[in-house]
Amino acid sequence: MKIGFDLDGIFIDGPPIIPKGIIEWLYRGSQNHDPKYRFPTTKFEQTIRKWSHSPIFRPEISRNVEFIKQLSKDKGLKIYLISSRYKFLENETMIILKKYGLENSFSKIFLNAKNEQPHLFKKNVLSNLKLDIFVEDDLIILKFLKNYYPKTTLLWYNPKRGIRLSEGIFHIKDLKDIYSSIK
Ligand SMILES: [Mg+2]
Fold it and tell me: What domain of life does the native source organism fall in (predicted)?
């Protein structure tokens, strides 16, 4: 069984004092239903983005970090980390994975080295992996992926709210709920 996990929002939280809606607006612009994210083109913007991805602003989601460390001991599973963070954040990403003890929890870590749009990057990685389950906190990305991978169970992780979802996407409040998808 192969399971893929997104990184931000699953194992790493956003900056604690900034509401998620504002972060999404900054990254995605006002068109809320478009999967496209803005790529920060200037050095200045990239520096700010790097700084905002340092561990002080990105606390671990400890229950999920513990969960994945346990899950990685299951020899019957192949577990992948699929993060669409852009190339210029690669150092920050590896530093934070080490800091939270996550660097050895995955069979393979996929990072967005070619700076593809996040939804397209994930679509490409999933096409090679043929995952049984993919866990993601970005519902817009899941809705996009659903059209391409009907055999992959798409799990939307959101510990707070559940809303009616389109067919083929399932809401989980806790990563333990993955077990009901593992047969
Ligand atoms: Mg995410």
Answer: Bacteria
19: in domain: no
On whether residue 131 sits in a domain, the answer given is yes
Residue 163 inside a domain? The answer is yes
Strand (E) or helix (H) holding 154:
strand 153-157
CA of 7 to the centre of ligand 1 (A): 6
- CATH code at 144? 3.40.50.1000
| pLDDT tens per residue, range 91-100 | 999 999 999 9
The answer to whether position 37 is within a domain reads: no
Residue range(s) defining the domain that contains residue 72:
2-13+59-181
Query: Chain-centre distance of CA 111, in angstroms?
Result: 11
Q: Which residues surround ligand 1, an ion (CB under 5 A)?
A: 6, 8-9, 137-138
Tokens representing 181 are 């998808």
Strand partners, 80: 4, 108
User: Under a CB-based contact definition with an 8 Å cutoff, are residues 9 and 115 in contact?
Assistant: no
